[in-house]
Amino acid sequence: MTSLWLNNAEVPARLRLTPGSHFDTVVLGAGIVGLTTALLLAERGREVAVIEAKRVGAGTTAASTAKVSLLQGTRAQTIARRHGIATLSRYVAANLDGFDWLLDFCAGRDLAVERVAAYTYAQNESEMSAVRAEFEATRSAGLPTDLVDDVDVPFPLHGAVRLREQAQLNPMAFLAALAAEVETQGGSIFESTRAQRLRHHDGRVVIGTEHGEVDANNVVVATGTPIFDRGGYFARVTAQRSYLAAFKVPGPMPEEMYISAGQPIRSLRRYPADDVLLVGGSGHEVGREDSAEAHVQDLLDWTGRWFPGAELLHRWSAQDYHPVGELPYVGPLVPGREEVLVATGFAKWGFTNGAAAALALAGRITGDTPKWADTLSAWRLGEVASLPAGARVNATVARYLSTGWLHLLGADEHSIPPEGCGRVERHGLHPTAVSTVDGVTTEISAICPHLGGILHWNDAERTWDCPLHGSRFEPDGAVIEGPATHPLSPR
């Protein structure tokens, strides 16, 4: 399950945190948001440290298709319906600034970027209404899109909206360059250090990690979903997993970027450096499917059907967070407190949104906020319109919380699971997650340490996933990602 990007990545390892240090700003997370924010601040003379739980690129950025596009599936029409064209136009302006910053950075460091057209396409005639609506919304927001009927691709395409001169790149090459530039500008990057808590002391923010404490004037939480519960962001986003695969294709492959307007999502691009085709999609909410592997197989079957002879090279997955209000949340962790800032909810479009978020976060800290920043504000006034959607999301969470515990009433089987399998059992009063991976059977707590959800076995990735807010754990209980910051206890 290693991504194409990580397979050959040459990124130097960095030391873990030495406690007791003092910084102007501490950034949690070494993906696009965290590293870009750190660089912007370091360039302005701030003493910055980036703290990463694993390695640079271990999160979503290096697991994505790395499309850098202002045409984002059907996002424009969705935002316009919820918030209106004026708000959509400001969202586009934010993404355009992020787009321009990212490409300028790459150009200044000779990073390979391919400029290609992006398409949102209809897989069948019924999806054409969404394609037309996306065309109208993007044009209303000032994007020079056009409608096309005939595109030379081997898979079903009944029409598409196109935006020329978008971009694609290698995300690990980009992150490696970002990290190196942060250090060149005087910033520090610490790996293998998981942040676990925050507290305020003498006007400073103290960050508690597994290796000790450091403090700063302010903290930027760029961890995909905020790992601190203050602000309740876990209840304002839905965690989603999607799958990607890289193939060698014997015949011609699409030269541009494609994503379907309807479900199941099909997302395609070419990576010319290795001459491979990337196919993604078949997503679902984390921990809520009987078989994640069935989604992977659906993607592989689709590729084999439309690209006969395609040879699978890599398969992997990514986790994204979809905001209930449809716009990203960028700003204070809690209203009125600027010391701790967050960014989340990019709905799978993290390259332009992530760079834009970094511009907004750095601007809040230095007093140079972009004009569009309020549109992405974490506590914008328009969020009242999202209350019904938020209520639905949290009703679903409550249902999974209750049904997970109710299912334990009959979970009294105690045999060893077959290789690659896991299940939740009841050992007395204790829900226990039992799995067998690589011949080793492990028993750990089945209760997510975040908010008490009962975990679900992910048969595609051999992990324990929480259906409440998307925390994920290794078979031995180690935290992979999500709002949880502590491992599962052994049984």
UniProtKB/TrEMBL annotation:
Domain of life: Bacteria
Record keywords: 2Fe-2S, Disulfide bond, Iron, Iron-sulfur, Metal-binding
Annotated SUPFAM superfamilies: FAD/NAD(P)-binding domain, ISP domain
Keyword Magnesium: no
GO cellular component: cytoplasm; membrane
PROSITE patterns, alphabetized: RIESKE
Entries under PANTHER family matching the protein: RIESKE 2FE-2S IRON-SULFUR PROTEIN YHFW-RELATED, SARCOSINE DEHYDROGENASE-RELATED
This protein's name: FAD-dependent oxidoreductase
